[in-house]
Amino acid sequence: MRPLGIGLVGTGYMGKAHAVALQSVGAVFNTRFRPVCEMICSTTAEGAACKAIELGFKSSSGHWQDLIANPRVEALVIASPPTTHREIALAAFAAGKAVFCEKPLGSSLEDARAMADMAAASKLPNMVGFNYIRAPAVQLAREMILSGEIGEIIHVRAEHTEDFLADPQAPASWRTRDVSSGNLGDLSPHIINAMLRLAGPIERVVAQMQTVYSTRPGANGPEAVRNDDQADFLCRFKSGAIGAITVSRVATGSKLRYCFDIAGTKGALRFDAEDQNTLQYYDAGLKPGRQGFSKLLTAPEHPDYGAFCEGPGHGTGYSAQIVIEARDFLRAIETHEAISPTFEDGLQVSRIVAAISRSHTEERWVRIAEF
Amino acid sequence: MRPLGIGLVGTGYMGKAHAVALQSVGAVFNTRFRPVCEMICSTTAEGAACKAIELGFKSSSGHWQDLIANPRVEALVIASPPTTHREIALAAFAAGKAVFCEKPLGSSLEDARAMADMAAASKLPNMVGFNYIRAPAVQLAREMILSGEIGEIIHVRAEHTEDFLADPQAPASWRTRDVSSGNLGDLSPHIINAMLRLAGPIERVVAQMQTVYSTRPGANGPEAVRNDDQADFLCRFKSGAIGAITVSRVATGSKLRYCFDIAGTKGALRFDAEDQNTLQYYDAGLKPGRQGFSKLLTAPEHPDYGAFCEGPGHGTGYSAQIVIEARDFLRAIETHEAISPTFEDGLQVSRIVAAISRSHTEERWVRIAEF
Amino acid sequence: MRPLGIGLVGTGYMGKAHAVALQSVGAVFNTRFRPVCEMICSTTAEGAACKAIELGFKSSSGHWQDLIANPRVEALVIASPPTTHREIALAAFAAGKAVFCEKPLGSSLEDARAMADMAAASKLPNMVGFNYIRAPAVQLAREMILSGEIGEIIHVRAEHTEDFLADPQAPASWRTRDVSSGNLGDLSPHIINAMLRLAGPIERVVAQMQTVYSTRPGANGPEAVRNDDQADFLCRFKSGAIGAITVSRVATGSKLRYCFDIAGTKGALRFDAEDQNTLQYYDAGLKPGRQGFSKLLTAPEHPDYGAFCEGPGHGTGYSAQIVIEARDFLRAIETHEAISPTFEDGLQVSRIVAAISRSHTEERWVRIAEF
Amino acid sequence: MRPLGIGLVGTGYMGKAHAVALQSVGAVFNTRFRPVCEMICSTTAEGAACKAIELGFKSSSGHWQDLIANPRVEALVIASPPTTHREIALAAFAAGKAVFCEKPLGSSLEDARAMADMAAASKLPNMVGFNYIRAPAVQLAREMILSGEIGEIIHVRAEHTEDFLADPQAPASWRTRDVSSGNLGDLSPHIINAMLRLAGPIERVVAQMQTVYSTRPGANGPEAVRNDDQADFLCRFKSGAIGAITVSRVATGSKLRYCFDIAGTKGALRFDAEDQNTLQYYDAGLKPGRQGFSKLLTAPEHPDYGAFCEGPGHGTGYSAQIVIEARDFLRAIETHEAISPTFEDGLQVSRIVAAISRSHTEERWVRIAEF
User: Fold this and answer.
1) What pLDDT score does B352 carry?
2) What pLDDT is recorded for position D180?
3) Rounded to a whole number, what is the distance in Å from the CA of D326 to chain A's nearest CA?
4) Exposure pattern of A256-275 as b/e (b: 16+ CB <10 Å)?
5) Interface partners of A (3+ CB pairs, < 8 Å)?
6) Residues of D in contact with A187 (CB under 8 A)
7) Which of C206, C212, C268 sits opposite D154 (nearest CB)?
8) How far, in Å, CA of B7 to CA of B99, rounded?
9) How many CB pairs under 8 A join C and D?
10) What residue segments make up the domains of chain A, in order of their start?
């Protein structure tokens, strides 16, 4: 067992999720590398000190540079806003540290490219936080696709819709100001990453985007919304499969409708993160009259489930995804192997995001190769 | 109570469905006009005679012209292949008969336009068989949308997928030979009609289509498939709403996934014909923590349900849709009012089908106004 | 094709349902015997005359004796209140007519016994209207059980709950006055019949019953409710299987929760009439990690579905159950074979109802053999 | 922030679950008392030493007495077999330590009574591990019931079925040897506890139990199964409500069907742990035609959800229940308030288990007051 000093930048929603995961990952997976929560960074020194106590870190700072300068911090988890990712990650790599970065990878395609390039050049372990792909049922989907159980994929229908801005009176915030925090910038990377992982590279897209509510209540009256609320796009995969994907932050009633329907030549899979412990599986090889979508409840025989619970159907949640992510990051550090999603994978997602945006603006099909 | 002589052309799947509906519609809805099954037409005189006995018609013929010439036939139901629709319908109008025509309206946009023009000129009752729109839960969806219960529609996600040709070994047939019988020609009109009915006119589309299995077993070895297997398209509605729609006849596992998710500013609706007695409704106006998609089971307080059964949740099926259709056709004849979907409505669907096809060929957004 | 004159007693909910079914059954199933709607009986001559026109009968009467005296009436459908069943059925058998009687079979165990005895003695075709057993998915369940697909049944959990009297302000009516119209008398026979049909004879029961709302608004103030609102019972089947069943007319939110979970040694089945086009099937023989309840959507390869629709998943409803029932009654008349549920089957249900009632009163396990 | 030394007895399924929970509860809930994993006990000293490293404990022992003797162990978590509970708990209380004990509370009613008595006498914090009650959706159910949202409870239908012994070839094990490890002893306490918590005290029961597979493969051929496989019971609550409950370890296809349907005078609730992030809610007060079971996805506005994730619908799993349990245990220690389920609550469950067992043996209704 080898302790591994971790620095965490960011103490919001995702910062806390990572702190919790770092504290339980060792016992859950009996990992050889054991995270030691060394130093945490928040926007102020006081805030950081407070969070260090709450989240169980040994020391704290109001400056991320202090984490990088700290020799006991061997790996950095970046959970601060996208606009900060690039600078922090580059400095971390320069200091020889492994880096885990929350999605999206930076606030622009340029950021993502710079970060992926530096990661490759540094040969240091790196990973992007597309956590949903680690839900056991999504891992199972990948396993079944790779094993050929549904034959060749012919069609994909997917969605990532949440309704956190469905109310027109929801106020303007960081979510409505920066392109990288909009619907396309913030939500779409999750489902795009899933599609790349499950169905392979995308060749071209055609998209439509929309800002449904053009202003939102601000501190001084209505404030203009500077990014999109919803987007649809068609895509063609390199394999020849085609698909249609919808992403929205204003889809009334959707809470975490990160879902996909994948049709193959021999079967089909359906997943919806609102019921993340189920993968629906249609096996076209069963006898006529006995075919139907089967509700596979996650169980110890499925990927990464058994470490959380020995009972089938007992369920894992969002937190478990982050713990699995932590295990994978530790494993990447231990083995020096690239474990997806790496920064390179994050860059591929960013290229597609850029293509969707251009397709919308220029009202045409756009090849990913343009980026 | 007034008897109304009906002629039926076609004795296949839909012909039988209409025959059954004609015989029960009077008792179900206590209609003033009561259908009398006068004459039935099949491809041969012998076949027709046989079907007349089976399906309860007084007389029969191997020529549709005989039905039109029969003065006791006051209204014609056309359930023969799309390529025959135009000629029969035009002759029927010319003879002053009301016409109900199965979807799609003819085998091309030209057919649809000629039929709609003649229907308008004749001022005779006319209707197209987009039956799914008449399922009580779909009617309820429309009622709720019109009443403003979900506010303004901002997004539509819809699908009409079935898997009747998902098996690559399914043989070539009429379904794989004519454009009007392909996936776009045959399946898409249903869901397009639903979208027009529920979300209003469409302004433009961008589409991708695909023939997944380019040949299928024929009488003398592999036979080329001459139409599409699957299609996706994005659309923009006149109202400003946007949407994404998928249509497939090779979507493994889908049986009648005629489904839609409609997000409005105040709520949302979800429907799937595989569970046609349910409409899912999300009311954003309920108090926090008590909001969720509610499973509205069709009941006597919903449109057209009570005539079939006084008990809520007891369910109606495909047959009931055809009975409701028959009631509407009788009502159109009785009242001389246009009851949707008329031939004009069918033409609007055909224009969109044509736009989708062109969008695919020319790989660009196509305005419906081009047609 | 042979016409068969039918007399119908009762023009309410079930009377109409049978009238509609009689008019479409011939075309749906291409039956050799074709029902001719000869004579209908309602409580008044005027009402009956009116219903004859509405429901398509040739003649009418305010006295059921007239139907029995009518030589053109070859078979009688009894859809009048339970208290009238015995007298009418006995007279019909005496006149040599086939009899279909709505459930429950008379208003008491004595009625049921007298009716079953007379049916047996007469050797005339007879049937009881436990319609839900004829839903294609329920027929499929029986087919799968008989074929051994789920092995031996070890446990049954079932329910028939509706909420038509869940509102304490729902007024007193015939439903609250007679024992045979109470929750146990009126609802339980359906699910008991299903259990007998699917899991075999029951040996003993222990029950608890309750009148939740002891009075209901009547014409002159509160009126006492004279029958039960809800009941639970445990049962032991002759096969050794055990089970627990709940029946309620006050189960808030249940519309037609006629449902069962049947666990066998090799698999399991689940059905809920609120989604009557689905049978859920768990096959314990599938490989680990790929086992799950599979949603079998009714389709042409399942019992009696294809006559209604050639498309899988297109759905049948309550009306189809009545049409299938009519087909079975015609077949029983044509073949002189007993087709379940016969009056004898109805009697077995009544014996269990009586045992449940006694178990409740005497607060003990009761053997069915006591009756 | 105050560190609190914990000793853990047992390193199996539940031991690990508690170890993980102890390590994350502080960061998740920002608790004032922070668990320090002091000492762990397994059946051998070597095993314990190994587990201490894996699960993050400071020291270890092969004797539970060492944990009790350790002054740094302020609270004990007992996750060893039921037959060991009594002795350990009593010794712990005698040493002045707070005790958390896994369910069932000892291996007999006598054990439970002795433990509850000692807990009461000691006035030390105590708790039983009925974890499912802490799933946020179950907590929400309780909150809604207490607030009167569904009115008065009139009926309960519940189940705890799993299929871990559904295969007749599953070998004999500790699960098949001791009464406290049988279906009634091991599984039923969970759902009985839930019913007591949600619907209040039970007055009497009538039950049937069954050992479906009387022998199972043992080391030397077939070995007799000494406890039950499945049980059904009816119950009457003190409130007047009635119910039916099924418990099984051989219910083919059930994985964690810990479910309940609770009907009240104003609404109803349905829960199934196989989809633990959903509570279905029927509000009879909504307007006609808009009533239906609503799928409430757990969210930050529901009990204890927000600490795990700020996003609604993102889901919590089995692990979160154990973390919530740990928080409650810490809170009980901090506040000296009894937090349910206490040992006294565990005793109430054991009384009902005893009554069910007697009811089965004596084939009669049994009042809980007999115990």
Assistant:
1) 98
2) 87
3) 14
4) bbbbbbbbbbbbbbbbbbbb
5) B, C, D
6) none
7) C212
8) 10
9) 120
10) 2-132, 133-317+348-362
Residue C273 to chain B, least CA–CA distance (Å) = 7
The verdict on a CB contact (< 8 Å) between A157 and B159 is yes
Token output for C83: 């208290």
Helix axes D343-362, D188-199, angle to 10 degrees: 110
Q: Among all residues of chain B, which has the CA nearest to that of D282?
A: B294
Query: Quick one: angle between helices B343-362 and B109-122, nearest 10?
Result: 160
Nearest to A198, CA basis, from A143, A132, A274, A118: A143
Cα of C365 to nearest chain D Cα, Å: 7
From chain A, the residues in CB contact with C292 under 8 A are 281, 294-297
The alpha carbons of chain A give a radius of gyration, in whole angstroms, of 21
ipTM score of complex:
0.97
Helices (H), chain B: 13-29, 45-55, 64-69, 82-94, 109-122, 136-146, 188-199, 318-335, 343-362
C295–A290 CB contact, under 8 Å: no
Name residue, tokens 């090799």: C266
Cβ contact, residue pair A317, D312, below 8 Å: no
pLDDT at C163: 98
Own/partner pairs, A213-222, CB within 8 angstroms, 24+ separation: A213/A165, A213/A168, A213/A250, A215/A172, A216/A165, A216/A168, A216/A169, A216/A170, A216/A171, A216/A172, A216/A176, A217/A169, A217/A171, A217/A172, A218/A171, A218/A172
In chain C, the residue whose alpha carbon lies closest to the alpha carbon of B32 is: C54
Q: Rounded distance, CA A322 to CA A214, Å?
A: 34
Do the chains contact at A26 and D255, CB–CB below 8 Å? no
CATH fit for domain D2-132, picks 3.30.565.10, 3.40.50.720, 3.30.1360.120, 2.120.10.30: 3.40.50.720
Answer whether D214's CB lies under 8 Å from D225's CB.
Answer: yes
Q: Which tokens sit at A200?
A: 């392979």
Q: Which of A140, A292, A295 sits opposite C297 (nearest CB)?
A: A292
Instruction: List per-residue pLDDT tens for chain D, 371 residues long.
Output: 899 999 999 999 999 999 999 999 999 999 999 999 999 999 999 999 999 999 999 999 999 999 999 999 999 999 999 999 999 999 999 999 999 999 999 999 999 999 999 999 999 999 999 999 999 999 999 999 999 999 999 999 999 999 999 999 999 999 999 888 999 999 999 999 999 999 999 999 999 999 999 999 999 999 999 999 999 999 999 999 999 999 999 999 999 999 999 999 999 999 999 999 999 999 999 999 999 999 999 999 999 999 999 999 999 999 999 999 999 999 999 999 999 999 999 999 999 999 999 999 999 999 999 99
Tens of pLDDT, residue by residue over B303-357, are 999 999 999 999 999 999 999 999 999 999 999 999 999 999 999 999 999 999 9
CB-CB neighbors (< 8 A) of B269 in chain D: none
Q: Which is nearest to D316 in space by CA: D3, D21, D15, D10?
A: D21
Is the separation of the CB atoms in A151 and A265 below 8 Å?
yes
Contact D20 A27 (CB under 8 A): yes
- The total of other beta-carbon atoms located within 10 Å of residue C13's CB is 12
Query: Looking at beta carbons, which residues of chain B come within 8 Å of D283?
Result: 290
**Chains B, D: CB pairs < 8 Å:** 42
Select from 3.40.190.10, 1.10.10.10, 3.30.360.10, 1.10.1020.10 the CATH code of A133-317+348-362.
Answer: 3.30.360.10
Query: Nearest by CB to D294, which of B294, B297, B301?
Result: B294
Contacts of residue B316 in chain C, CB cutoff 8 Å? 317-319
Residue that has been written with the tokens 């620095």 in this structure: A7
Model pTM above 0.95:
yes
Q: Do B282 and A252 touch (CB under 8 A)?
A: yes
Residues of D in contact with A11 (CB under 8 A): none
